[in-house]
Amino acid sequence: MRAFIQYHLQIDFSEPVRALTHVLRLTPRDFDSQHAQDWSIGVDPDARMRCSKDTFGNIAHRCSHDGPLERLTFFAGGEIETRDAAGVVRGQNETFPLDVFLRDLEGTRADAKLHEFVHDSLGAEADPLARMHLLMDALAKLCVFEPGETPAPRPAAEVFKAGKGSARELAQVFIACARLLNVPARFISGFFLGAEGVGEAGAHHGWAEAFVEPIGWIGFDCALGICPRDEHLRIAQGLDYYGAAPRRGAAFGFAKEQAAARVNVDYVRQASWQVQQ
Fold it and tell me: What percent of the chain has pLDDT over 70?
């Protein structure tokens, strides 16, 4: 699929802030089934922007402004080509050993209820890939996807107890369960580019990836109940949501902020004869 994406994030402050610093992860990385033909990121009003790679290899832009500032708007977008790889991620430079992705953080820590759920859900299934699909299907029956976005995701145990959550929250529940099974897992932030998906998943989307022998890293989208397809634009990865968050930052002052994000997508798919050539 070839997609033309325009992303817009507007942040309004209740009173002028004296200064601010933000870290943005809004630039996709290339791998075998995803390539950025053209991509740019900008800010209004003009501010200092510095591009680097973070610990997990994500492309990060650090933005700072000396203020005073009542509104800040970020823009990102360009042309992306993706293909359906059934969720398999190959061709990406992996910098960490798999054991790193077994670490539990506050948002992905399992409680007794999650231990019990994992034990009861998989039965006698021994195939590693089938176990992950069973896990995703079982979660879909007990945790309802709530469209929209929360300012910050609740811990996995709290979401499981509530029986519903946003895409990023359901991804963290899946990660917690996978790690209970000693399966390396990580959080992925991105966009869902499907015709109906922008309305369902929100401007930002999140899913999980698990390392499944002998295949490698495979994505599992518990909100939509599928492995990522060519409609999924993969942006950043981390141990949990915070390690891959599209935006994290701080402002100096006492102002409250209100943020609104939207993404516009135009896309075309190749004809089957083109794909087969």
Answer: 93
